[in-house]
Amino acid sequence: MTEIVNTNNYTPLSNDPTEASRKNLRSLLLTYATETKEPEIIRLAKHLRFASNYRPPELYGLPKLHKPGVPFRPIVSTMNSTTSELSRYLKKIIKPLTGKEQSFVKNSKTFVNEIRHYHVETDGILVSYDVKELFPSIPISDTLDTLYNLLNADTNLLSRTKLNPFHIIKPVSFCMQECNYFLFDNKFYKQSNGVPMGSPLSPILVEIFMESFVRQMFEEVDRQIAPRLLKTYVDDIFVIIKNGKEEQFVHFLNSIRPNQIVFTMEKEENKTLPFLDALIILTNQGHKTRVYRKPTRTDRYLDFSSHHPRSVMRGILSGMIDRAINLCNPEYLQPELNYIRKIFYKNNYPRSFIGRAFQYKPRNRGSAKPNTLHNPYLVIPYVAGFSEKIIRLGRQLGFRVFFKSSPNLRSILRKDKNIIVDTQSNVLAQESILGKKAKRWNIGSKNTWISSQVTRTQKPFLTMAAIPSLKKEDRY
Known about the structure:
By secondary structure, this protein is α+β, with helices and mostly antiparallel strands. It is built from 15 helices and 18 strands. The chain has helices at 2-5, 18-36, 39-47, 84-94, 108-115, 140-153, 165-178, 202-220, 246-256, 310-327, 330-346, 351-358, 386-397, 409-413, 450-453; strands at residues 10-13, 58-63, 72-77, 124-131, 181-184, 187-191, 229-233, 236-242, 263-267, 272-275, 278-283, 286-291, 377-381, 400-404, 428-434, 437-442, 448-449, 466-467. A hairpin with a 2-residue loop joins β15 (428-434) and β16 (437-442). The two termini are 45 Å apart.
């Protein structure tokens, strides 16, 4: 990770920009709140009033186990940053603008369905192209211009927000440019190009750029080297192209934005090519598909003895069954289902539990019953035996029950994300002295930090502890 932050794309900063960015963003949102009366902007501006609500974004790395040398993928955690809530709000506004290109595929299922009946000629080959380090490479200024044009052309924008295109572009730019910084190894850095992987806005902006890139590609490509079929999923491109033209096509792709957007190429091997979760196989009867698994797979899933709701385990198992049904041609389906039975049996799932999961009809994901969508809900930690009783009670009384994760070894031992001094929540401040009064506080996650909330105080036992909002008579 140190090698990554020492590249030209990252500039060291002399201090923490969080407070300055909070003030600047609040000033911007207050102006927009006055101009538009958008309720969400008003709420965000009010929330930005308190400096203690925020912490700087933090960089950490995820290893790419399937890549040679196991390089790290840089991720910027923006949780509780000044722009995290605003980014989620902007994402909801912008998301409907994406996915409208004919080449776009939503997931592996739609990809397989769209290519299933396509005839591959004898001189055609399967090739996939992938953008190298797309997130830090996209030109943010050009992407914002494209976004502005899409917003101007969107006739349904007013149904999602009271903001006009200018009101949307400015905060998007603020999130991706002015606030594109992070903390790593107790030092602050600013990202010079692209968007940070980890921000809620980044995937949407990447999609907007790539769809614009593909449109430009179709306008400029020479018909002699143009693919016969092209499908895109973010930075992955699948093509069926005339044999011998694949090298010319990748050179053309790399010439559109030279030294900025760089594509790598993978050709079919032994008449097969993986794309997303599917393996495309060329046969004498045409091309067929089955589930693809990376060579680095371990076949380890949530063990049946783990302290998790049975619904979670059923969901994992049924999800893999659904994937097999959606991606496999008939001759590959039964071997795939047998493989699923085998690996879940190795993860200590009872045969009866596995068998019941196979006795089903394919489900329509996300189709919750309309009469339960607006019911009150309860979020509690899962406790085996007790939680199931709460679910049954909820069904009788008309409320939904959701479970949150309990502490596990991973959450206790994981140290790749540092806890920043003065911003640690959920700790106990033993007899911290507030003026003349001694208080013992059990800290919750929505409290403010002692370092910014208390000015007239003796030194507490835990200086990084948080305190809840105090009544007026308890403040001094």
